[in-house]
Specification:
heterodimer; A: 230 residues; alpha+beta; Beta-Lactamase; 2 domains; five-stranded antiparallel beta sheet; 10 helices; 17% strand; B: 242 residues; 5 strands; 14% strand; globular
Chain lengths: 230, 242
Amino acid sequence: MPGDRLRRILAELSDGENVWPAARLCAVGPQLTGMKGAGVMLMSDDVPRGSLCSSDEVSQLIEELQYTLGEGPCVDAYQRDTIVSEPDLADPQTPRWFAFTPPVLQAGVRAVFGFPLRVGTVRLGALDLYRDRPGDLSSDQHADALVLADVTARWVLDAQAGAPSGVVAEQLEAGADFHFAVHNAAGIVSVQEGISVTDALIRLRAFAYSHDRLLDDVAQDVIARRLRLG
Amino acid sequence: MTREADVVRSLVEMADTLVDDYDVVDLLTGLTDRCVTLLGVSAAGVMLASPSGSLGLVASSSEAMRLLELFELQAQEGPCLDAYRTGVRVDQEDLRAGYGRWPLFSPAAVRAGFQSAVALPLRLREVTLGALNLFRTTRPPIGEADVIVARAFADLAALSILQHRASAEAQRLNEQLSAALSSRIVIEQAKGVISERAGVDLAEAFARLRGYARNANLPLTAVARAAVDGTLDPRAWTSARG
C-alpha cells in the first residue's frame, strides 16, 4: 500500500495515462523535487554504464562528465550507497570532484545531489538533481527525491525484465514490492541459478509478466519450492 | 534477578549499543525480543515509516510467516498505522471485537492466535517515526505496567534511529528511516540465500544469520550483505546456529 507521497509522485509520472517512458522520469523529476534538472545514471561494478535519461542539456553534461571522468554525485552515491549533497559547488563543504566541478560550474550548476537507486543489496545507479543556485534541499524536496529514486530503481528492474509499460506503476500502486517474499525469493533464485540478486529480481519479474501472474504469488511459489525458474 | 532489575539492565544495554556504530535492525530486533522475554507479551514488532509515507516492518520477535504477514497487512490498516497516524497509543483489548475497526487485520490477527494488541507510537519530539506493536495470545490483555516499560523501550528505539541527536532534522531522519528499511530488505534477500544454501526455512535462515553476526560480533546488515555477495564462506550457514 503506497503512502501519500508515493501516490502523488506516481500520479505525476503517469499523467493520466498509465504509460511512462524513461524520459518521463527525468522530465518530471525537476518539477517534482523543485530542482532545475534531473538525470539518471546506471552503474554496475563501480563503473558508470550510461545515462538512462536527462531532463536538459546541463543534466546531460552532468551525466556525460561522470561517465567520462568516473567522479561526481552519482558515482559517489552509488559507490558509498548513500545520499550525496553539495549545496554549493562554488564553495564546497568537502573538496572533491576536481575534474567534474569546473565544467559544471561553468555550465551554470551551483548545487548537485545524488540519490542511490537501490533495492536492498541491489544497486543500480543513481538519480542526480541539480540547481542553478546554491542551497540545500528542503525536507519535502529531500523526501520526494528519495521516493523518486525508489520508483526509478523499480522502473529500471522492470524495464530490464521486459515489462510492458504501465506495469511498474500498477505494481507500485499494488505495493507488490513491499512484500518481503519478493526479496526472499530473489535470494533463493540467485543461489538456484547461480546469478546475482539483481538478475534474480529481474527474472522473477520477467516470469510474473510473461505468465501474467502477480509478483508476490510467484515469489510465494518460489519460497514453497513449488516453482523453479530457469 | 527481579524483573525491575532485568528491565533496567536491558535499558542500559540498549543505551550502550547506541554509542558504537550499531545496526538499527539488530538493535530493534533485540528490543522486540526483550518485549517478549520481559513483558507479558507473545510477540512484538517495530514498523517504521518510509519517506513515501508507508509503514514497513523493520524488526520482529519472531520470523514466523503468520506474524510477518500481520505486519505487512498493517501498511494498509491496523493498530500500528493508527498509532503512527495519530501519534497516540492504540489499544485493542479484544481483537475479535475489532473486526469493524480493521476488517483485514483483526481476523488475520485472530487466525494467527492473538487475542489483544497494543501499538505505541515511536516519537521523537513532534515527529512520529513509526510504531511498536505488542501482541498477546492469552487473557487478560497486556497490563499497564508492561505498557509503561514498553513505552520506555519505544522512546529509546526512537532515539536510536537518529544516531546523532544534534542533527535531528527532517532530512537526516528521512535518510535514517530509508536506510533502516533498506537494511531490512538486505536481510530478507540474505534469508533467501541462506535458506537455499542450507536447505532450511526462512525463519531458521534468519536465526543462523543472526547467530553468525552475534558470534563474530559483526553488524547484522553487514553479515547479510556478505551472505548475498557470497563473500562469506557459504559453509557458514550449513552448521551455524543462532
